[in-house]
Specification:
ABC transporter involved in vitamin B12 uptake, BtuC; single chain; 2 strands; two-stranded antiparallel ribbon
Length: 293
């Protein structure tokens, strides 16, 4: 393989893996800490993408802001949505069986899809990247690489670093990790575990919506886009270890490279290679690559 083509594919694999991590990190927080099987998590990714599509022209027209302001607005709205959903629905699921969690979160998928169809419609839409990120980098005489894809990778790395810092270096992170290990003990120490769970859930929703918003100019915005990313993100969470942010990061990068290069070298089997990877890892490490933490 030509070195330039190899470099491009590596950059694509990194960008895809980092984007998966952004979605899967929110899922592993909710799944690992709150013990909620949230099938609606992919819908938050879709909501972020559709908010970027719907808000970008409104913000440009009335506020004079660009894509960055649009993404910031998506994060704020997604955080508020997550806080509301935890209060209205998910707070009732902590003591319920997993089957009830699955049924309710699947119902939310149907509700979000129907609302999306009523409000936006069923067409495929595009989101325009900011003009200062619309160019390309010249890699050779004939090969270029989009600057916006590098921007996606940079944002994901920044968020990954911030998330690691919050969980490992701050009081909030210490409380979250303690709540994941023993929520009864944390509650007995006077910490409002209900408020903590709402914050965690809101962060998870915001991360998924951020991923959808920044991915929209690359992947476009279309019906059912959340369902496709949900399955692969569950794979990332299981491979990395339920509740482990470090594991989610490593697993997302592994999945990104396996999927990208699988489509090049083994196109006929590309659709199953990620699941083969998961099966092999779980065969030797049933708990995933890392334990919770």
């Amino acid at each position: 393989m030509d070195p330039i083509i190899l470099l491009i594919q590596c950059l694509n694999a990194v960008q895809y893996g980092l984007l998966l991590f952004l979605v899967a990190s929110g899922l592993t927080l909710i799944f690992g800490i709150m013990r909620i099987i949230n099938l609606a998590h992919g819908s938050f990714y879709m909501i972020g993408a559709y908010m970027a599509f719907a808000l970008q022209p409104l913000i440009a027209q009335h506020l004079g802001g660009g894509f960055v302001v649009t993404v910031a607005a998506c994060i704020v709205l997604a955080t508020l949505l997550g806080y509301f959903l935890e209060w209205a629905f998910f707070s009732f699921l902590y003591t319920r069986e997993h089957l009830q969690q699955v049924l309710m979160t699947y119902g939310l998928i149907l509700v979000f899809e129907e609302l999306r169809s009523i409000i936006i419609g069923n067409d495929v839409h595009g989101v325009t990247p900011p003009h200062w990120l619309a160019g390309t980098i010249q890699l050779s005489d004939v090969m270029t690489y989009p600057i916006y894809r590098l921007f996606i990778s940079a944002v994901c790395l920044l968020v990954a670093g911030l998330l690691y810092w919050v969980l490992s270096r701050t009081r909030l992170g210490m409380t979250i990790r303690a709540g994941a290990s023993n929520r009864e003990m944390v509650s007995s120490l006077g910490i409002d575990i209900t408020r903590l769970f709402r914050i965690v859930f809101a962060i998870g929703v915001a991360l998924a919506a951020l991923a959808g918003a920044i991915a929209a100019p690359v992947s476009s915005v279309y019906p059912g886009m959340g369902n496709a990313v949900l399955i692969i993100c569950f794979v990332v969470v299981v491979i990395g270890g339920i509740g482990s942010i470090k594991g989610a990061f490593l697993a997302a990068m592994l999945v990104g490279f396996v999927d990208t290069f699988g489509q090049i070298f083994f196109p006929a089997a590309a659709g199953v290679m990620v699941y083969v990877l998961m099966a092999v890892i779980l065969l030797f490490k049933p708990e995933g690559l890392f334990k919770q933490g």
